[in-house]
Amino acid sequence: MKTKNSWIKKKQAMVQGGQILKQVINKLQPNLIPGKTTEEIDQEARSLIHKYGGQTSFDRVEGYQWATCLSVNEIVVHGVPNNTSLKKGDLLKLDVGVFNKGYHIDFSDTYLIDEKEKGKVKRFLDCGRQTLQKIIKLSQAGTHLGLISQTINQEISQAGYQVILDLTGHTIGRKLHMDPLIPQFLQETIEKTPCFKIGQAYALEVIYSFKDARVNHANDDGWSLKTKHNSLSACFENTIFIEPKQTLILVN
């Protein structure tokens, strides 16, 4: 186990980064409206990150030059910002990261554009939100990551939806994506999976769709991934920091 002094600065940097990211999300959300292009949203996110004292995270990934991933409808994750305009009724996955004092913080939410959530869409989105909250509560020092994978799959599948088998949550810190990963389903016995470690941060993700469990590249941009049969999708993500007696939710 790392001593407290060895990770206290890391925690402070990541907590501050989470506060910056929360401010960015709060400012972006009212501007997710019909007619707005994903490129315009990305530019606004970049400006806000800098305004609040952070640095962009995602463009530190080799080959990626944007501050956000903006994925619409059947695009599940890694949607590249472009001149696509949002339309009423679109499901937008807004994925934003902040880099602060050497550490990454990652967050994603799903928004229904210019419509009140109701019926099957509300049920669909509520399932992901509730599942994320459930796995955050389970994520404690010494808990096996496999319990998180098992819980995601159980909650999503019991509601009648499909987890995306190809995508995972991940450890996060000096790099945006680090091992160990956290799959959306249990691949082996829980006891054989790694445990949450004190002083480490994790990006917990719930990634699912109405009908599809697999993804393909949506186009030739090299990044955007869509459901195999164009099923609508959602993603909910937050970054947590593990302390001996509690778990901190960094974008809160």
Q: Provide the succession of SSEs.
A: HHEEEEEHHEEEEEEEE
Q: Assign the CATH architecture.
A: Alpha-Beta Complex
Can you summarize the main beta sheet? 6 strands, antiparallel
- State the CATH topology: Creatine Amidinohydrolase
* Percent strand: 25-35%
What's the oligomerization state?
single chain
Shape: globular
What structural class do you assign from the helix and strand content? alpha+beta
The total strand number stands at: 13
Give the mean pLDDT.
97
Give unreliable regions as ranges: none
Radius of gyration: 17 Å
Put simply, the count of helices is 4
CATH superfamily: Creatinase/methionine aminopeptidase superfamily
* Number of discrete domains: 1
Gist of the model:
The chain is α+β, with helices and mostly antiparallel strands. It has one domain (4-244): Creatinase/methionine aminopeptidase superfamily (Creatine Amidinohydrolase), CATH 3.90.230.
